Amino acid sequence: VSVIGPAAGSLTSDLSSVASLSLSVLTVSQQVSAVDVSEGEQFVLLPCHFNKSELINATVVWTRQDLSPSTVHQRQTGGDELKDQNQLYRDRTSMKADSLETGDVSLSLSDLQLSDSGTYTCTVRDPRGEPRATDVELSRIPCLPARPPAQVAGISNLVLSPQWIKKYKHANRKIQTCK
After folding, report:
1. Over the stretch 101-125, which tens digit does the pLDDT of each residue have?
2. Can you list the positions of beta strands (E) in the chain?
3. CATH code for the structural domain at 29-141
4. Which pTM value belongs to this model?
5. Domain boundaries, the chain
6. Which long-range contacts (CB under 8 A, 24 or more apart) does 95-100 make?
């Protein structure tokens, strides 16, 4: 850029100010996986894995953005930090004791409830680098009782036709027998 005249000095000064600015861009590495859970299951493991070198002095936070507070579980170098945990998850979440050393920061969720369905985000916050995240979609699979619903309700003479069961299975695609 060449400028002639009295503005030249001012522009040179402005350009050197602009040249000294730096641009920081935050990039989040994101992966998505899905976990299906049958009704009646006692617990589920939400998968999340990182290279163990990425977890040095890192904090792992599991969240659900549709909740307030959004924190489901938090693990730091010193152990679990659950003071900001959403009360819906109190005493129902855990991670392996050596999770930060192995890179397996999967979350175990017990005493499953219908309201547990949703998108969970596993985020690693490393003071040396950018945050990285993995989304896990947890959904419940409908199931058929081991006995026809009429028998469950106490009506033993009513039998569901195989055509109804086939139609129900086709409509829901994923179907299991309740335990």
Report:
1. 999 999 999 998 888 999 999 999 9
2. 29-38, 43-46, 59-63, 71-76, 79-80, 93-94, 107-110, 118-125, 132-141, 143-144, 176-177
3. 2.60.40.10
4. 0.62
5. 29-141, 143-177
6. 95/60, 99/60, 99/75, 100/52, 100/55, 100/58, 100/60, 100/75
